[in-house]
Amino acid sequence: MKPTTFIVIVVLCVYDLLVTGDDASEIHSLKQFLDDTYKIKDLGALQYFLGLKFIYTPASLLISQRKYTVELCNDFNVSFLPQVASPLPCDIKLALDTSEPRSDPSQYCGHIRRLKFLLHTRQDNTFAVKKLEPI
């Protein structure tokens, strides 16, 4: 008799834990073990994980970063600007800024990292984000 195989995937990021797989009983057993050992809280079906919203439809799974995008626009103080088809024209030539360098360039790099996270669902912004990324 051929042994039964199954897949159980565990994703851990700081305090967020995601458990999924193709065998409900094995998933349940793992959750029970984790609860007995670490006292976890089962939040049910996946809705939010790492800033991503998961929306189930009968035919597919949709992933949205709308909340993250709104927060990003508010943090960058650009939520009042009108929407555009493309955030940066493809033929743009950026000029070298000869003014004094920022005292803390890590803030700019942090902004770019946040924009790069948005590329998970908005690949149309890749050109603009890569153009603004420090060399």
Features:
3-stranded antiparallel beta sheet; two-stranded antiparallel sheet; elongated; alpha+beta; 4 helices; 135 residues
Number of domains: 2
Shape: elongated
What's the quaternary structure here?
single chain
* Proportion of residues in extended strands: 15-25%
If you average the pLDDT, what whole number results? Answer: 88
User: Number of DSSP strands?
Assistant: 5
Structure description:
- The protein is of the alpha+beta class and 135 residues long.
- Helices cover 33% and strands 17% of the residues.
- The chain has helices at residues 24-38, 66-75, 106-118, 126-132, and strands at residues 8-13, 16-21, 48-49, 52-56, 61-64.
- The protein has a three-stranded antiparallel beta sheet with strand order 3-4-5. Strands 1-2 form a two-stranded antiparallel sheet.
- A hairpin with a 2-residue loop joins β1 and β2.
- The mean pLDDT is 88.
The gist of it:
This protein is an alpha+beta fold. 33% of the residues lie in helices and 17% in strands.
What order do the helices and strands come in, and which of them pair?
Blueprint (H helix, E strand, L loop, with lengths): L7 E6 L2 E6 L2 H15 L9 E2 L2 E5 L4 E4 L1 H10 L30 H13 L7 H7 L3
Antiparallel strand pairs: 1-2, 3-4, 4-5
